[in-house]
Amino acid sequence: MATNRIDQRFAELRARGQKGFVAYITAGDPDLDATRRLALAFERAGVDVLELGVPFSDPLADGVVNQLAAERALKSGTTLPKILDTVRALRADGCRMPIVLFTYFNPVHRYGMEKFVPDAVAAGVDGMLALDLPADETEPWRKLLEASLLHQIHLIAPTTTESRIAAIAKQAGGFIYYVSREGVTGMQQQLATNIAGMTAKIHKHTRVPVAVGFGVSTPEQARAVAQHAEAVVVGSAIVDRVAKLSAAPDMVEQMGAFVKSLVDAVKQ
Amino acid sequence: MQKLKSQPDKQGHFGPYGGMFVPETLMSALQELTAEYDRARKDSKFKRELDYYLREYAGRPTRLYFAERLTRELGGAKIYLKREDMLHTGAHKINNCLGQVLLARRLGKRRIIAETGAGQHGVATATVAAMFGMECVIYMGEVDMARQALNVYRMRLLGSKVVGVSAGQRTLKEAISEAMRDWTTNVRTTHYILGSALGSHPYPMMVRDFQSCIGREARRQILAKEGRLPDAIVACVGGGSNSIGIFHPFLADKKVQLIGVEAGGRGIRPGDHAARFAGGSLGVLQGTRTYVLQNTDGQIELTHSVSAGLDYAAVGPEHAWLRDLKRIEYTYATDDEALRAFRFLAEKEGIIPALESAHAVAHTMKLAPKMKKRQIVIINLSGRGDKDVQQVAEIVKL
Fold this sequence. Notes:
The structure holds two protein chains of two kinds.
Chain A: H1 5-16, E1 20-26, H2 32-45, E2 49-53, H3 64-75, H4 80-92, E3 99-103, H5 105-111, H6 113-123, E4 127-130, H7 142-146, E5 151-152, E6 154-156, H8 162-171, E7 176-179, H9 195-205, E8 210-213, H10 219-226, E9 231-234, H11 236-245, H12 251-267
Parallel strand pairs in A: 1-2, 1-9, 2-3, 3-4, 4-5, 6-7, 7-8, 8-9
Helix pairs in contact in A: 2-4, 2-12, 4-6, 10-12, 11-12
Chain B: E1 13-14, E2 17-21, H1 24-41, H2 44-58, E3 64-66, H3 68-74, E4 78-83, H4 93-106, E5 111-116, H5 120-131, E6 135-141, H6 142-147, H7 149-157, E7 161-165, H8 172-186, E8 190-192, H9 203-211, H10 213-226, E9 232-236, H11 241-247, E10 257-265, H12 276-279, E11 281-285, E12 287-292, H13 317-324, E13 328-334, H14 335-349, H15 355-367, E14 376-381, H16 389-395
Parallel strand pairs in B: 4-14, 5-6, 5-8, 6-7, 9-10, 9-14, 10-13
Antiparallel strand pairs in B: 1-2, 2-12, 3-4, 11-12
Helix pairs in contact in B: 2-4, 3-14, 4-5, 4-9, 5-7, 9-11, 10-11, 14-15
């Protein structure tokens, strides 16, 4: 039976005693061709999992950097079917990096979960992280997801109670995304406190790897966070740089170099 | 019909609608709020306190006024107005705000946030925050701040901070998103007073309950005045709090026709209206699964209504359910019809309705003439129109 690329990657990391690096970009910012080239550059830079943000008109969990990225992506004509096409093209290009669609639930709901799950798997998507689909609301689609190769990536937050952690851990597959701070996505000067305490709590309930994100933006922060988890997620800092470099002819190369600095910090 | 009055399930589902579609960071706070609300509504002390403030501070019960001249002019059914416009702060919104601020106090939260469209909910929230000595921040789209400038100033007078929202189409939907971002960031210290029967559980249920005093009073009052129940009740539906508030106590009275009136704007074309049942489809927005105005890719469509309070892309989930069950009918009134009704009620009854409520009046102007003289219609006059006068003056020259 085929295995999920996320599971495979974390198994390899574990065998090597290495931490993982998860990079987030908004699909279609500035356009989907750039997304495809960025993904290939990120894979070369050693990114372990790529989170592709599906742009949504009302991104209520996002800070201003990702809000603007979503606006640009929508303006460039990005849709969920076109993002699936892009993933398909990446796989055709030989990309083996695990890919997670990071989305608000509505675009997927509108597409139809019954159709989305097989289409996403066929395109080469490995996980779906729906920000506003908490574990409590997945019941209608649980069987469908469990029978597929697609993992639903669950979130845990600093406010998540221990009983919720236990319930979420039971459903978790691929990895658990620990949102390290109360708030929206965005870059922060300082890391959240008590990351170690929360990841330890999660580890008590599951062997599923934990990736920590929200507010991690520099190699130093990434290195610090990697102490307490199996992987580190950097989003807004990458998105912000894509926006600033979007007109540069060597944007993809520069982004590859920036992401490599983050990967190296985590892998040290 | 008894099942219609039952509660949603534990997760707040009304059939396939409702639920808790929010980021994980908010789940614990929403569960805490649900549990506290459950305790509060069984607590006679809470009920007594809420009743006290509704009566002594807000001015309940509101009158059920026989609109004699409106009735004569339309030449059909007898029309009564449920005068929520007479409440302190000028609209039904204060009913919910008083309930929620008392809950916030029970939860030990000292900071209040809210969204507002027309500004009525913002003013009501700023009012209760002032009275209870709480810090208060109101999020409002910049377009709405311009068309409801008077209410912006009122909120500031009441000591609240009004934060303009410049994202998207800069109206109610964006204000809700921004309030949810604030709540996600400050969830441990802050209570979010959501103003309509919208969003994640427990809000649709809780806001409905706090607004149901409208329907309970109306039922008692019409029985006292007419010795019987009305034939129809008409209310406008934005998120749907004034309408569910007046409708809910009548759900089991099968012979009472319940009619919700959405904003038809410039007509039912994408971007020109806010009639979710006329042009929407099943979606998930801002915490709930319901009818949403969206395109085929699941992106939320622009909306338009002359009335800021109805200018929203989703409808409260219980409305979607009661529509499926064919217990409530939904229709819409256009901007022009609402503006005509706004003037008609002013000229015939000396009552200037809120533009939101004018949509209910507009539909009644079509409905009542077709009814028999012995029949009875109640309009929920959810708010007064003082806030709209300046905006209407720019559209209609007198």
